[in-house]
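Preliminary data (for renewal application), norvaline complex.
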Amino acid sequence: MLQFETKVDANKLKGKDFLTLLDFSSDEIFYLLELAGNMKKAQKEGKISNILQGKSLGMIFENASTRTRVSFEVGMTQLGGHALFLSPRDLQIGRGEPISDTAQALSRYVDAIMIRTNSHEKVEELAKYSTVPVINALTDYYHPCQALADLLTIYEHKGTFKDIKVVYVGDGNNVAHSLVIGAAKVGMDIAVASPKGYEMKQEIIQKAKEVAVSTGSTVTVTNDPLEAVKDADIIYTDVWASMGYESEQKDREAAFAPFQVNSELVSNAKEDYLFLHCLPAHRGEEVTAEIIDSAHSVVFDEAENRLHVQKAVLASLIK
Ligand code: CP
Ligand code: NVA
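Predicted structure:
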């Protein structure tokens, strides 16, 4: 059972957007994790919830998804609500309708909008014109739902965030950005090792470091995976070429090869290290099958936790 003893006014979360974890205080993040833990327990016990009865979530997917789509849709159903899958092929956005008009029109029907798109600016624009909460389900910059699930998974397995060292090895992408912010918010040390030219954005490193100062944790950025992985409790990686970067695959393979999570690399971590990956994974590229399919890997607990944390987010934001 997760208990963080936070003092959060839950009403303050109502109507809020969920675009990046930077917009949430450490206490609010602990509150969402605790709620997710409680909802997970209730669901396992077969308890039925109707807290979002009559509520609808519009889900705009400009990119492919397995976990995000299914977990949001199932999450709404489990809370008594309903989700609509909206692809740009079917929406008028695909034919040039402004995002601002789409936001205002959808706000008249649905109680929250979830969006996955390459452009973080588009999500900000949608949130600006929407009168219902907007949830970021992955942009080129952030993947905050993923980071929240990652934090829940780490806490469940390690029982604490204190003195836990998370090491992210690979592309300084959306997943890395949200993970580094999430770790800093909960006071967990994080090291990120990326090839030269594929580091996280400077502004995000800077923001995460500022947060870390306030929570007494550290953010370390390096180009040396071996050094980063030393004494790691958690090793995390993601694909070498994210959605939208597929054409760079060949160049990236050369740059990322020394960053593969394999048995040699993990031999530098703690003996009881855990392996995390947001999925989908490419065995033989960013991680070997030997590692992702080993007893150290908790990737499917992590995937499951997307459902629970998103239910907590939906229940907290929807009025
Ligand atoms: N991790 C994640 O977001 O998976 P999907 O792309 O399948 O939604
Ligand atoms: N970084 C990956 C995450 C997929 C869930 C991407 O953006 O494609």
